[in-house]
């Protein structure tokens, strides 16, 4: 398992997004994490490496060290690419260096701290002939790909109206003053750049609508706000949009939308039909039509285009997330085995179904068949 | 990555559930697939192994061969456990043999072909002192664990009524006559046992309600049907339930419920409150109360018990499935790199965001900030 | 307004269902309430009549008096029909008497206290040549009629499975011991007959599935319970169903399903498609298909059959209930006028929009048009 | 029934909104339609009057005639108020005249054709000492009143963000060129004023957010569009909002949002909580909180404030619309009786439940009780 070797920059203990990248990289069995500069100090980086099962000699104290040393390793051993999961201000330096040392790069968004950096990076990528991917993950959902396919095939006619929202509430209170790590860098212009919520989630909304519609925002009129006391970066914004193809629309995003979790959603209206999708319920793509009833498309379900179903890992009705529920059983089982490996006595400490559940299931089957064969007579299990 | 070594029995090319097990096993980075008897012939097994990046010498032609040969390998090399993902009639033989050779086992459900086998297996597990896990995966969802926790803490009072459903439509037509592999063994009593839909999905429903409620079905009255022409096993069933604690209820399941994808759902009513959950929308647990408004619990969201939030891999609002969307970006990126490794020229053949998307995002941020600082004046991107 | 003259039996002060009947009768402007025997005593009946604007001489102390006296009035004055809205045990006597005196009857359900009464009433109706209607109101929803039409036209193929539920929680606690009027007669076999929740809501479920499917329940196996301490009538039930056409299914109903309000819902599966409908969200009829995406039908919306759209009072998207919201404005306005009529000074005591809201709306229009004509410049309202 | 006497201006045959006003006025039994100037010609007005059961001498050829003649009738006979349901340009003249002749007025929105008219009308209302109500009907929903009450009590803290939408698709194509009456005046500035969709539905959105939040829009930046070929009035608009209390937000409305029916919705975010409500599902008010799970409020349900529950006509779970379903039974019954009155033979031509349904229900009860008393044995109905 794992045909490609990944080195990670950032993502040490306590990092949310580093963990997400690692899990996402491992699902399809094509990528193995082989090294990392997980934290800004060698000590912390080592601790993270150990927890992740990475050998000591592949845990580096800085991204510079990692890139240099890995470049000297034989090809079959050295990392193939780096995954950059640091705060925004630390995207450009390692990306540049990695590309210049011959490594492919996959990087969190927004891509850089400044627009100048972004444009420089674009040039570097082009001259390096290396692959650069940005994790605008919301374009990875099958139903987003279905939406894009439906529009590019003309199913909706000409797009005339777009409403996109990305609503979170986690900055409704002054969490950045409570020591919460992510909050503190998100509200700091030195680490986040000139956009706060705008850079963090507004760019997702921008990317999503341009990805799905196949057209681009031509001009915008934005009203950004910093509602949180003492904040200099926006934590909320409302934007009027005009698209190159003549469509118009709105974008609204917020991190002070109290109680909202991660409510990214989009509505797109064409002359023949329209689409609606929400990330919190990602398995439903709602389509409305001029003369037909509203339809609901699902991953792998009826009416799906290959452009979408190619990205479905499981059958229709098994929601995105089915794999994770399944993985939970494996994880609890694995934890039990690791405890045993570590010399602990076998005591079912973790929550997974056992042989007793299996027997119980068989008894249920037998009782049900017996009852049914006797015209639904009551049978004790 | 991968502290535990997994051997797989079944799950060769074209197997749905084998792939699910592999992906589920890999998400948390604790398990590595090291060997397999993927198919009933050595040739097919080898082909599967190659596709999965397993060395030839760890691809076996039969589970017997695998268990015997792996048992002879040094501990640091040999598999720690086997994952059994074959049709039902091939669960018991490899489970028994693996346990007797000192391997832990994780096995698909229903556990065995017959109740006799189940009871024998229970004895073998006990005497082997090995861990046996059954993949009743629906108990792996955080909101199912939240439901269980709420009931065990008494939040709902005494449970009085339970309605559970598991509705699929994939056997609405005679797909077993079209050569569809899974359909053909599911309707075959020699491979499935005495229960059809009952064994395949009824057992999930049974396991789910007993898991959540903490009580057990005491007796049942079942009305099973085989609507599909020529079928001998049930493809639909309706059951009256009576529970040990005095609760009563219904179970309905079907594989001829036309248009249903995987509609597993449960409603549980207590004296103080009630719960409702559907697998197709697994991030919502609906709670109703005697005197308070209806509430919606979400993974990692407000009001979640540790028993549930311990099983959440990502923050609230990032649905189950977020990891898979994310993984799609990684997979497309990986495919591009593999093509390059294989000597193909760099041509962006797969769908992932690139440096251009990154620059576009930066331009969007700059335009929005400029517009906002000029009182929402229109700014071109 | 009001071409038909209605007399009401029951429905005095504090009666929920009497008020529902009166409002329902008045919506379409075809029926006027002209007389009533609203309560068991003349005094109470008079008080109700006064509140309803019925002249004293048309308020009767008993249904017998009303039927006799009304029958003597000239045709252009006397009631055309009676509406019977008493508890179950008082359905049969007035229905019989009214029919025998030449009046049409509309009656609440269940129709009678006993099956014998029902069969006798059937004979009386036949010989009387009068119209008898039973208010199985749930068959009055446009989406229920759409469902019936789709099935009768064969859109779903042959019906094979039916799941119906009617879940309420209002008897979860012992409300009948708190003096709540409706609860006390509902749990009293002398007033309700042999069925408790069964008669009250189970019959609605029975009527609904037979109405929609066009076939009938042939046999059933029922497990009724009285969970509430001291209750002799069922407050919960689970039933296996077999239909005349070969379909099978379940019915579950409850008045101890804590937190449920009025959750009547039905799922019907055919060989070609299936339908799902819930009374608490009555404007959506969900259709699933063998090969097409799921569809949502709405009253007056795309794809509706005339059999349904003939029963829609308002355009698509104006939900059932739009009229009531509208009526609320009228009611508050009416209350204000009545106060003024009664000599009170004009003081806006009730909640309705006024001329100031109208001016505000005009200012909004003017500001928006001005802003837009100036390229979305900010304009103060 | 009907303590107040209503005269109607407009609302003749083929008018959607006239019919809505009549039905809304009649539900609560407080208002009777006694006269009308239903159309612009006496002939058409007479025809409408006849269909509505209004005597000939109370059907007028013009509103001027009606107001003058009604003013001369004795008080117990003459109308108490006029309901104005004409196109926008015909709101002001009859409203002015009615008020000046001593009649109260209830009027459709937007209130007038121009802002000047609105301000003049405001003065007239004040000097007339008559009641003027505007049918901003969406403020009549119980859950809208619940939202208003929650905010005014401070449950949500300080309001910071408001997103409101009103999306329809009925002008997606050039229906105004097909002879559709409403479409043709809606797109005509002479009849609609300077706002198209803005005046028709934008004003509803404006009224709704100001009603609920208790604050007002202070300034706005609007981008209006006329997508339909040849249209001079807007059929779509996007607006940035700033409120007097410091909140910011967006409004988006459209009549070219293909497939949308009547999707009015609002999201309001405060420092302590937030609310979300949609007119197409009016029985649910979603509340999100800083630290508690999401809640769903329902009309008459748990947690409702008296400010809302005072406006509920039926118990919790009986959705808005329950009355209309109920009324459908009454209407079919009434049609049958009218046919009979008109001398037709009794033939059940309309769809309502009969005595046979009643007997069937009794048989169902008897069968279920018998089965249950015999331990759920099968019993034939």
Automatic annotation (TrEMBL), chains A, B, C, D:
Domain GFO/IDH/MocA-like oxidoreductase intervals? 144-276
One Pfam family linked to the record: GFO_IDH_MocA
Q: Name one GO molecular function term.
A: nucleotide binding
Domain Gfo/Idh/MocA-like oxidoreductase N-terminal as annotated: residue spans:
5-135
Q: What is this protein called?
A: Gfo/Idh/MocA family oxidoreductase
